[in-house]
Amino acid sequence: MNFSSKLLENAVAEFAKLPGVGQKTALRLVLHLLNQEKEDVEKFSGTISKLRNEIRFCSTCHNISDQQFCEICSSHKRDQSLICVVEDTRDVMAIENTSQYNGVYHVLGGLISPMDGIGPSDLQVDTLVERLSNDEVKEVIFALSATMEGDTTIFYLHKKLKQFNISISTIARGIAFGGELEYVDEITLGRSIATRVPYENSLSR
Amino acid sequence: MNFSSKLLENAVAEFAKLPGVGQKTALRLVLHLLNQEKEDVEKFSGTISKLRNEIRFCSTCHNISDQQFCEICSSHKRDQSLICVVEDTRDVMAIENTSQYNGVYHVLGGLISPMDGIGPSDLQVDTLVERLSNDEVKEVIFALSATMEGDTTIFYLHKKLKQFNISISTIARGIAFGGELEYVDEITLGRSIATRVPYENSLSR
């Protein structure tokens, strides 16, 4: 692109670094910001800068938090003996939105992925082991993506955690609610037949 | 959404104000920035803030520029007697990319649109009239969108400019190059028959 201004070109280049944002979209966003009031743009850039500089992670579960301990970890209403292991903060938000879970979390910060060069030492694995050694935890639930990376991570963590006297579970896999059988992929359908559950157990409580 | 942090919530809200960015995309972008180095995020927010505070518009053509006069207006290689009237800086970039135009520009900063409350006084109309009174301009080309707003703007400007002894033209409209006839819309096809040109004139020089 032929930019008439270096300032404009730099701003477009910065926006184009964001995931899923190309040159044209970046230009559209930058021109939108140029049309806004100076104070609004200052607020935009200030909020982002403040976020990166002041953000903290809960010392217990490593979820994004404003304090040293997040609201969930410091709540007396939550069952501290039940830990749900997730990949990142989006998963915490998704599970919280269901209103079906009353335990606490442990945010790994990623999944084991040799292809991307992410090993156990890049994740919050040691801190999870530590929590289990110190605290009175009764159950650990793995709520990780049903992908190769998710399964690898569960396999690794299971080996690490079986030394403790706790029950270890994973969230149920199978056909989604509202899913029509003919559109379900073969692997999911095949496994959901192999891992069928007694009818009484299939009813959600 | 259930945010675990006020800082995170604010940053997502700011991103979600951008055109075409919803809450989920905003969250993805913010979490991406959180994973970047502090210096990189500082550069991102700094560049945007700097852009809005330091951007200037060429005193002659009102295109975005770093100096008082843009490179095109101050170039001796450009034909200063030929002015192409466009809506915004994106149109200047598009025309420059064709390498087919050697004149200068006049950026209106919008189009007349009563529906959106944009009248002639919101656009750089007076400054265009001024340029024509002072400078030795021979031709004005309207390169505006082929929409209701574009046509309204051309109609208005034409009335304003016909007092001057200059030729006024609009960019050619018709079927696009590579366009297959059966897929061209009726209005475009109908008009391109009505405004047919002698074969010799249709060859681009």
Automatic annotation (TrEMBL), chains A, B:
Gene3D superfamilies: 3.30.60.80, 3.40.1360.10, 6.10.250.240, RecR Domain 1. InterPro entries: DNA_Rcmb_RecR, Rcmb_RecR, Rcmb_RecR_Znf, TOPRIM_dom, TOPRIM_RecR. SMART domains: TOPRIM. One of its GO terms (biological process) is DNA recombination. CDD domains: TOPRIM_recR (cd01025). The keyword DNA repair applies. Residues 81-176 form the Toprim domain. Belongs to the RecR family. This is Recombination protein RecR.
